[in-house]
Amino acid sequence: MGASSVEIDRQIAETRAHLDANLAILEERAKARAKLAIRIGAVVAIGVAAAVTAAILVRRNRRRSSAMGRLEAALPGSLKGLREEIAARFQKPLPSVRISVAGVEEPKSPGFWASVAHKAAPAAAGTAASALVAAAARRLARDDAPPTV
């Protein structure tokens, strides 16, 4: 007829043991996959953070203006167009005028050294002005710095 109750109990116990073993294997696999998912998520989060940081740095560097741009931004509105106006005036050629007086000898053109001095004077003045501004900036920075003990 049918199987005895002892045999049925043994089959149930074998099935339970087999199911417990399969369940343990499935739990191990789920833990391994969860660890893998956490690792992948961490790598993705680090990558996103690095990309956002790089984008912020690139944007900050691209938005940084030149010294001339910062200077123009600091000037009042009435002075902002002054540079273009002066440049436009200097681009137009100056009119040529020659005055001659009867009986007066024309002055000679300047000598070699005079023309060299005439050409070097603006460069020397610019260098001196730059040195004065740098010295003033250093003095201001020194005055603003906290005292050292």
Number of helices: 5
Largest sheet: none
Strand content: under 5%
Which value, in Å, is the CA radius of gyration?
A: 43 Å
Task: Identify the overall geometry.
Answer: rod-shaped
Give the beta-strand count: 0
User: What are the low-pLDDT stretches, counting only 5+ consecutive residues below 50?
Assistant: none
Mean pLDDT: 83
From the N-terminal CA to the C-terminal CA, the straight-line distance is 104 Å
Order of helices and strands: HHHHH
Helical percent range?
over 70%
**Which class of secondary structure composition applies to the elements?**
mainly alpha
What does this structure look like?
The chain is mostly helical and 149 residues long. The protein has a domain at 1-91. The chain is 77% helix and 0% strand. It has helices at 5-63, 67-74, 77-80, 82-91, 112-144. It is rod-shaped, with a radius of gyration of 43 Å. The model has no long low-confidence stretch (mean pLDDT 83).
Task: Chart the SSEs and their pairings.
Layout lengths: L4 H59 L3 H8 L2 H4 L1 H10 L20 H33 L5
Question: Can you describe this structure in just a few lines?
Answer:
With 149 residues, the chain is mainly α. Helix content is 77%, strand content 0%. The chain has a domain at 1-91.
